[in-house]
Please model this.
Amino acid sequence: MFGRVLESLEEIVAPNPSLFQNFEYNWKLIKTFYMKINQNDQHIDNTNIPYYMEQMLQILIQEETQNKDSAKSNKSAECLEFLLESKPLDLLVDLAINEKPIGCRRWVLKWIKRYLTCLENPMIAHGSVFKPIIKLMTVCKGALASPYEMDEILFLEAVAGLIGKNPDVIKLFIPSHQHSDSTTKGLFSTKPPKHNTLFESNKLEPNIRRVSLMINDETEESSCNEKSASPKNHSFPKDCNCDDGDRFNLLDAVMSYIESADSTIVVRACEGILILVSLKELDNHCNAINASFTELSHIIGEKLFLCAESIPDDMELSDIEECNVTWGLFPKDDHHHFIGRYQLTSFLCWLDYADCLVKENYLIADLLGMLFREQVLEKNLEPNLLELNGPFGLVLTAKVIKQIKSEELLEEVATWLVGTEINGSDCLLNIIIENAQDNSEVLLQTLQLVEALLENPNERILHSMIFLYVNSRGYYDSREIESWSDEEEMREKRHGSAESAVKSRTMAPNNILKVINNFLLLLPRQLMAESAGTCYEEYMQDASRHYQMWIKKTWKFNWPVEATSPVKRPKSPVASGECNDSGISEEMDMKFYEGPLLRLLFNQIRNMSNQPYELNLASIAILSKLALLPNPFLHEILLSTEIPVAQDAATLFTVIQALSKKLLSEIPRYSNFSARIHATAKRLLSNPPLMKDEKDQTAHDESEQLFEALIVLEEFCKELAAIAFIKYHHATE
Model:
């Protein structure tokens, strides 16, 4: 009780100083220290300056908190006003640049960084704040070795983050667009970019890094374009008055740290760049911004080229396939080490980062995409694909395609593989596929490349590989249309009918049960490992999930709903009867060509009994993905078992029919073949499959591929039946 009385008397006699008095007192102590010239040679850690600076920052934070809690009192922010009027930041920055006392720069960088991040409104648009910040940026040069690299990049990233929250202040960091204090009114009227993960968390998960920050929906895109066209949303005038030497200073400063030897600093720099390029308020007419973006694109493009060129071509192919990295998460040292690990991970990290960049800004996407195609794809990968090291080039190309998530870079891959004008004959992709027809050394790797292209679908690539050939419907014998069933007539009647409940008659035929049974009963009962017609339901759930995924991936593609034959132009009676020199009519002479990919896959199915198990799995994996695509022509040639097939043409069903007959003629020749079928099924269908050991070779191993092909075919037929039913169900629901 007596102590409380003494405390009350003490407060009356000597009341506690106000926040402003404390702030001013600490600042005077700092100025007093610097007035003593003989003390400037001391290291700042041996002084009380860091403590005084910390007190000033805490007072500013406390004042803002109090004013926020008592907003109705209209209490002025005296400390912040003192900071803006007396300009202590100018003095601190000057001392930091001159490094007096020694170590002062680190503390000033930390102090301003915390000032920008801890205060809700640090008043960066005021000349007393942004001018010292710009001045301090001049000493942040990543190209020069500095003991303060980490503090410098954290300071720059804090400035970038603040611009992300207040995009209009970006004009302050371009010399020709800087405004005086009186013209910065209203700079805080905009909101930060939507869905930008860098503003939500400092630690990004791998999957989050891959989420595009751009608007995908067409309606939202159009509304966004309308907003950006309005004067209110433009930060710069359309006619930019930048000089040739003007640059986006903040972006240039952050870019300089990309070459740092410290990977943590490089990641920080990449995050800062990503924040800046993702701003929708960036003006594409500003010469300063375009100049900095051009340099950034060339820096990243050169990084990609040098990293790709450094990858040793004697790497184990499995190491390339199993290497999974993202640009912000470098693999730990305790991970599996292999030849070329550092070079490969560096390349994939920079590729992943470039992929993120092009999704954020179309100005960067155009130039960086072109550099990626010219420097990486054409100069580095293409020679390996065609001449030097086929398997290595194919596996690395497949890895690159799997790593890419942006449509912009995928379009560059399409331009590289199939060109801008699709003619299907001399494009690089068809050359690669045709080269695998008679070259077993690259066959498996070619199939892996095709599978990567299917998992990351591009309309131009798919058209060049498949639809350029099957869209003619040359596999279909239209002369038998009247005799084979009435379903085609019904399809033509319902085509384009808005009243029809069936989305696609091609994918939902009336004889769906017959189609399913054709697959399930293809093999004779004595050759089946399980009872006929059972267990195909096990594939239903996966087929449904995968089909929904393919619909989402291909919804933008301009694919028809029905598979209809192209309309033929009427010929005159004389012309229709004309024959060529051989006496055979042109119409009869034309044979259907399914394209290099389907021809390769059909040949692989025909030869399954003579091929390794791994190769058979790779072939049916691609065919399963193709069967899941929501395209009517591909559905018809792969899943329609009842269509009339043109002479010398083939469908998937006719191919597996031929394989089934071959197996039926060969397998019963072996004694106790039924037991071997069940033993092979048990071995292959276990999880994981039990492969034969080289040390356990027996006399039966010469025919082992025959029994393995039988099990693969049986399971493949079940999967095809499940896919056909799922597509039917989706088309009729």
User: Anything to note?
Assistant: Residues 565 and 602 are 23 Å apart (CA to CA). The first helix runs from residue 2 to 13. The chain has a mean pLDDT of 80.
